[in-house]
Model the fold of this input.
Amino acid sequence: MPETVSTAAQHANGHVSAMQHESTTPVTIVGLGLMGQALAERFLHAGHPTTVWNRSPGKADRLVEQGATAVATPADAIAGSPLTVVCVLDYAAVREILDAAGDALRGRVVVNLTSGTPEQARELATWAAEHQIGYLDGAIMAIPTMIGEPDTILLYSGDPAPFEAHQSTLTRLGGGTAYLGADAGLAALYDMALLSMMYTLHGGFLHALALVGTAGVSGAALLPYAATMMKSLVDWLPDTAREVDAGDYATEISTLDINKAGIALIVETSLRLGISADVLRPMQALIERRVAEGHGKDSLASLIEGIRRPASA
Ligand SMILES: NC(=O)c1ccc[n+]([C@@H]2O[C@H](COP(=O)([O-])OP(=O)(O)OC[C@H]3O[C@@H](n4cnc5c(N)ncnc54)[C@H](OP(=O)(O)O)[C@@H]3O)[C@@H](O)[C@H]2O)c1
Done:
């Protein structure tokens, strides 16, 4: 379904601003939890006629005060707009809602921003195709307060037609909106990949804070050094990606042998200082296994071979 272009706000002198050229396609938001409310609010503020539905009553009230139309059933919600964005707890809830909407779904576009696995996304895409529903799976790489910001990333995958038709509306939610490809599972896969980084990097920072904390050093005191270190890690990413893509782990910078000794020192120190080494242990195990397999002269990037082939496999 094509985007509509607003002409309502044309100035008397005939000038139409860039803003007014942008789409104001009616949208429906299904699920008004913390994230769904932020999505609905963003569309409302951008001038989209916005229909909302939530399982429990009350959560639509603030949005209705801002101009949203609250409806009583998922079918009414889907029927309210050519484009429906679903953002609820999990895929089981999504299926319950879509099943309840029934025939109202036929010919409509559903964009599912609920977190799930790649497999769940592919299954739902197949089901949607069988029911003549335009389906896009998406992942929000942000918290609710970041919705609508120029750098906020939202990733989409699945049927390209709904993305092409609604790209400008979807971009309202974040300037970093991107379409990854026809495989509906890709957005969920990227989501998990990027969140894996978030958890492990965050864990590393917390471990660092625990270490310096044993000497009474505050987080604020470590912060400038941690931030600089994090930036150098970011600068290092292209080299790591290149090594992994090429499968070439020759290094003149830092071998696994030296990293094996380095991480053992940190683990030992942490334990002596009475703090957990749980954040470091998995990385230490990967390094030790790779060295034991005869790859001590390879770079750190070569650990991906161990990640791809778990010890238990
Ligand atoms: N919050 C974030 O920072 C963030 C960031 C990225 C992605 N996400 C993803 O966005 C999705 C929503 O997160 P959230 O933070 O908005 O969660 P939330 O505040 O806990 O809201 C959950 C929503 O799901 C609805 N729901 C749960 N089970 C349902 C069912 N069986 N049928 C109908 N509706 C049901 C709830 O309705 P009721 O009000 O009736 O309970 C509520 O609207 C999740 O998949 C989450 O992983 C969230």
Notes: The chain is about 50% helix and 10% strand. Residues 1-21 have pLDDT under 50 and may be disordered. Residues 186-213 form the longest helix (28 residues).
